[in-house]
Amino acid sequence: MTAPSVHLGDGLKVSPLGFGGMALTPVYGEVDPGQALQTLHHAVDAGVSFIDTADIYGGGSNEELIAHLLKDRRDEVQLATKFSLVGNPAKGYTDIRGDAAYVRQAVDASLTRLGTDVIDLYYMHRRDLRVPIVETVEAMAGLVQQGKIKHLGLSEVTAQELAEANSVHPIAAVQSEWSIWSRDVERNVVPAAASLGVGFVPYSPLGRGFLTGTVDASSLGANDFRRRIPRFAEDAADANQAVVEAVRSVAAELAATPAQVALAWLLAQGNRLGLAVVPIPGTRKTHRIDENLGALSLDLTQAQLDALDLAADAVVGSRSADPNWVSQGRE
Fold it and tell me: 208-212 contacts: CB < 8 A, separation 24 or more?
């Protein structure tokens, strides 16, 4: 990949597409560790240097997997991980913690699992409503002073929470779900990030695979995380096929794939709304990485953007079983 790096906020420079590590845990079904590591190496070989994980993914096993990549390639990677969720994503979360003691405890545990002495971007994964956000961010800023992390990030915060946090320490990036069928962040969070010079890192930019047209919601495994998401319920998933068809139609016009169109839409949306956007699609297959990178060379026409916008207006079902779990429920 020859595309130039993207500047998020606070001087953080990353590859124009990242890699979402959650796909390499059993949250969508069983994973072969050897294949997962091969996929990570291929991503870096292809130019995807921004690798995103979290301490909760696989109960820490995702960080341990990425440690094998970092062992010989640490200087090729911009590493992001997260803290605050307690539990297991496959079985449900038991708590959210943003107290200073937990921030310090969590970062040391992540550094140990990752086998590194510094994290490039450290996110608060979800907001602990029992703790003022400024207190959590003050604790995170202390980690910068100690040299344990370089930049601060926040996931699924509201515009007000972002502004409060940024008043304590510069925030490099906000990570929230954002895609053709998840656009609630455009109302408040995205404009706030743009005004503050904070980059945006959309997770699930392919709609947890749905926008690629390769996911049959009715055949998801019993342990598949998506079974708990309202828009994957049978009736909603059937109605949402209209969104997939709109993406497929644009893809046919461009001789591209639906995944490439969905990612190109996000990049174009960032340009339209005035902020740096670096999607982090995840995959278990090396050829999907190459496919996703093809989005960087796609140019969508205004008519194509309009068609995709129109399709997004007809989405059925929430992106989360609990709206308060994400920024949407607190705005």
Answer: 208/232, 209/28, 210/181, 210/237, 210/240, 210/243, 210/244, 211/179, 211/180, 211/181, 211/243, 211/244, 211/247, 211/258, 211/259, 211/262, 212/257, 212/258, 212/259, 212/262
Find, among 256, 297, 259, the residue nearest to 281 by Cα: 259
Contact of 154 with 123, CB cutoff 8 Å = yes
- In whole angstroms, give the CA distance from residue 266 to residue 274: 12
* 119-124 and 78-83 strand pairing: parallel
At 142-154, the pLDDT tens digits run 999 999 999 999 9
**Token reading at 263:** 């990612």
* pTM metric for this prediction: 0.92
Q: pLDDT averaged over the chain?
A: 91
Is 57 catalytic? The answer is yes
Terminal alpha carbon distance of the chain: 38
| Residue of 198, 204, 165, 146 whose CA lies nearest to 320 | 204
Token readout for 152 is 């601060």
Element (H, E) at 151: strand 149-155
pLDDT tops 80 at residue 7: yes
DSSP state of 257: -
- pLDDT of 8 reads 98
252 contact partners, CB below 8 Å, separation of at least 6:
none
Q: What is the dihedral of CA 109, 113, 114, 120, to 10 degrees?
A: -10
Helix (H) or strand (E) holding 305: helix 302-312
Give Cα 8 distance to the centre of its chain.
14
Classified as helix, coil or strand, 70 is: helix
What's the token pair of residue 313? Answer: 């207006």
pLDDT grade for 329, boundaries at 50, 70 and 90: low
**Active-site residue, selected from the candidate residues 28, 57, 122, 123:** 57
